[in-house]
User: Fold this.
Amino acid sequence: MPGGRQILFSSNRTGGLGGFDLYIADLGADGAVSNITNLGPTVNTSFDEQAPYYHAATGTLVFSSNGRVGMGEYDLFWSKGTPGNWSEPVNFGYPVNSVKDDIYFASKGGARNILEDVLLSTDRASACCLELFSLQKKRALKQISGTVLSCDNKTPLAGASVTILDTVNNRTVATLTTDANGRYVFTMEDFQPVKAVATVKEYYTGNVQIGTPADLDAESTTSPELCLVAIKYDEPVVVNNIFYEFAKWNLKEESFPELDKLVKLMSENPSIHAEIGAHTDAIGSDKANQILSEKRAQSVVNYLVSKGISKDRLTVKGYGETMPIEPNKNEDGSDNPAGREKNRRTEFKVIK
Assistant:
């Protein structure tokens, strides 16, 4: 028992709840017994409770009783807790119990499965006497289910490929395909944190972390919904926080975090091809701005290639000052610095 040397025993001594009750007592180094305490009405009944056994690996009290609803005369029950605070006992059911007397129990099972390696004393196969039986019962596998949806309209995505990754041990747990309702199901021996990665044509790859449920004894759990973003072709997206040296094409270090996001996006979606487009404001000549924009777009592509993205998937496009999104000058002809700042931009566009 937790907290020191203690002994569990059954006795019909006076002061109990009736018949044989279960007790706990401290056991001294010299074998002397002290502080004898009845386990109380949660465990004991007015009938007989016998053969207490404590499985330390799972923190489980096991005992036999003929005072509870069961399959036979004596059945084996389990309870968890501490002295004075036991949970309501639960019948082990078949195959631990039978329609006859099942009284003694011992387990070599580990923390994950008390029934992994058990010895039972029962008269289930005898006309007169208790006999020893061994039992090895595997635990039911844990079932985890989830759904893959479109982020745009929450429509289930059928036929999506879902890979379950054990991020701790860096291994693939399962590879699945969603059904007509966008649902996937897989099993594990134990709940543990994993990641579900989903891919389907015309959508960006997405993932969701699947944690462990609060109740580790539960047989199933549902993971958070995994929604995928539809790929929009030929729609340029401004990549924020891309900075170059003034009037040059050299990338500043502050740009790297955003560019690394593009590396991740293209690595997770190996089928897409993209155009990297660069734009300038209207300061300087048209020709100079055109050349500058081309070199800036090339700098971004060079960075992506240096991080492992194939150059065959990337197209360089310089637009110079030809496609402003804000006026470079105010209506009165004065300079518009805020507008020019927005016009100096880098864009990412998925192309067919």
Summary: The longest strand covers residues 142-150.
